[in-house]
């Protein structure tokens, strides 16, 4: 059965936000693309988005038995995509900085010319935390499958859209049950099953971990980077890079650059960072030095700039996770 969807237009250019790039560059793992309609389940609705060069069109399908307003969906979009931050002016600055590190013989188009419209999302911190615990030694396709299984088996059913069931992201309470680790291992989570379960337990243990709460996690948006980073390192399965991903992608720490050996190679290859190309692992001093180096080049939104560089080095932004169903038909209702 075709769902009748009433679309509203939000005037915004693809250079400010490109849905295809932003939702496929390794930040978020639960968006589906079904015949160019993006869909994502929140706690009470399915968010629907599509785009042309001048507009994002949005709609929603509420959880069965609940009602909601279009205004709430728009508020979600503005917050989730951090639309108060103007991207084009940042890109202009990054292009100038990038050019300073290129030789006259290498005046090709920069990643900031080729990969426009990539911005850092402002995700729910709890979902971002668990998603990036799943990301350890993993690829985007598998992480996406893990996040989907978390929702199917431990989330709350929201509704159907075009023959797909949608579920909310599970709460700490839902992931702290006695059988959760065993179930996750059966679902192929491996060692990450223990990390997810133990982290959920910390968020639900008022006696032994009274300071580890969802409220305090949300409060890290207002805290300094060092405090937020330290808070996250208490959690099972969270190391320095995962903590930095969470800080950047959900806790408003825009200058934080998550570093791995891939980013390290970009720093050496493209930005004249003095390092050892053959280094397999990064020590604490090198990790910190690269972060500081990128911030010196790109400024207070260095983490945003790094996400563009990372996307430019990906071989496939689709990551094998798009869904195409030719029978789908969505009609615009005036």
Automatic annotation (TrEMBL):
Compartments where located: Nucleus
Example GO BP: base-excision repair, AP site formation
Pfam families in alphabetical order: HhH-GPD (PF00730), OGG_N (PF07934)
Keyword DNA repair: yes
Catalytic reaction annotation: 2'-deoxyribonucleotide-(2'-deoxyribose 5'-phosphate)-2'-deoxyribonucleotide-DNA = a 3'-end 2'-deoxyribonucleotide-(2,3-dehydro-2,3-deoxyribose 5'-phosphate)-DNA + a 5'-end 5'-phospho-2'-deoxyribonucleoside-DNA + H(+)
Role summary: DNA repair enzyme that incises DNA at 8-oxoG residues. Excises 7,8-dihydro-8-oxoguanine and 2,6-diamino-4-hydroxy-5-N-methylformamidopyrimidine (FAPY) from damaged DNA. Has a beta-lyase activity that nicks DNA 3' to the lesion.
Domain of life per record: Eukaryota
Primary subcellular site in the record, as a coarse category: nucleus
SUPFAM superfamilies: DNA-glycosylase, TATA-box binding protein-like
HhH-GPD domain segment(s): 134-314
InterPro entries: DNA_glycosylase, HhH-GPD_domain, HhH_base_excis_C, OGG_N, Oxidative_DNA_repair_enzyme
Native source species: Candida maltosa (strain Xu316)
Coiled-coil intervals, chain numbering: none
GO cellular component, one term: nucleus
Gene Ontology molecular function terms on file: 8-oxo-7,8-dihydroguanine DNA N-glycosylase activity; class I DNA-(apurinic or apyrimidinic site) endonuclease activity; damaged DNA binding
Protein name: N-glycosylase/DNA lyase
EC number, as in UniProt: 4.2.99.18
Biological classification of the source: Eukaryota, Fungi, Dikarya, Ascomycota, Saccharomycotina
């Amino acid at each position: 059965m075709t769902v009748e969807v009433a679309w509203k237009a939000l005037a915004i250019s693809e250079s400010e936000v490109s849905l295809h790039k932003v939702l496929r560059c390794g930040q978020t793992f639960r968006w589906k693309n079904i015949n160019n309609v993006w869909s994502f389940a929140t706690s009470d609705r399915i968010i629907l988005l599509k785009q042309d060069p001048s507009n994002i069109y949005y709609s929603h399908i509420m959880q069965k038995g609940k009602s909601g307003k279009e205004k709430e969906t728009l508020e979600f979009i503005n917050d989730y995509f951090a639309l108060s931050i103007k991207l084009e002016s940042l890109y202009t600055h990054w292009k100038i900085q990038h050019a300073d590190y290129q030789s006259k013989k290498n005046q090709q188009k920069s990643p900031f010319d080729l990969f426009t419209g990539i911005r850092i999302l402002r995700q729910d911190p709890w979902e971002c935390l668990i998603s990036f615990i799943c990301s350890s030694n993993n690829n985007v396709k598998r992480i996406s499958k893990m996040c989907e299984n978390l929702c199917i088996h431990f989330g709350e059913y929201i509704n159907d859209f075009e023959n797909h069931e949608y579920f909310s992201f599970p709460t700490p309470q839902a992931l702290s049950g006695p059988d959760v680790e065993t179930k996750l291992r059966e679902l192929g989570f491996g060692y990450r099953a223990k990390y997810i379960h133990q982290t959920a337990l910390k968020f639900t243990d008022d006696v032994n971990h009274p300071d580890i709460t969802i409220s305090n996690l949300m409060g890290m948006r207002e805290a300094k980077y060092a405090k937020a980073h330290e808070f996250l390192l208490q959690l099972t399965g969270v190391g320095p890079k995962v903590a930095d991903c969470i800080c950047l992608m959900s806790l408003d720490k825009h200058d934080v650059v998550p570093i791995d050996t891939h980013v390290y190679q970009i720093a050496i290859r493209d930005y004249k960072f003095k390092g050892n190309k053959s280094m397999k692992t990064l020590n604490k001093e090198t990790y910190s030095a690269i972060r500081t180096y990128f911030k010196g080049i790109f400024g207070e939104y260095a983490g945003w700039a790094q996400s563009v560089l990372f996307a430019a080095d990906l071989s496939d932004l689709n990551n094998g996770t798009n869904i195409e169903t030719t029978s789908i038909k969505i009609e615009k209702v005036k």
